[in-house]
Amino acid sequence: MKVWNKVLLASLIGLAIAGCDDSSKVDAQLDKAKDNAQQIKEAADSKADQLTDAAKQKADELKKDASTHIDQLKSESAAIKNEADQRAKAITEEAKAKAGDIKEQAKQQSDQIVEQAKDIKDNAISGAQNLSTEAQKQTQAIKDSISKDNAQQTTTPDAQPAPVTEAEPTPATHSHP
Length: 177
Known about the structure:
177 residues; mainly alpha; rod-shaped
């Protein structure tokens, strides 16, 4: 609109300087000024439309660029998430494998300990049985020995007469001279 105001002002100044001899000249000048003003208005409207269209195009381009950039970021984000998921899965699988190995080692050690405990138990039972058998043999030997001693004591006094001991004095007559 500033251009429009300048054109009108210039037209008015031009009329004042050129003079107004005739009203037909003034009317012609006024018509010319109106035409010029109309052309300037149309040019300004056209320029405004062009600027509006250019701004719309630029906004559309920026929207497209932003949309493209957003799509790229989404794609990159999805790729990063996918990679993170794969790494997490690999780590989980590795942890499961290690846990399985540790479990297997623990089972083997447990089996070894159970086997050792079984061997110790078997050895203890065998040793206890050996000791029991040995104790029974010794007990039987002691019983047999006691039986022999009792058998000898009961048969010895009845079968043999008592021995004569020299400690007993014999009666003798002695004369005295």
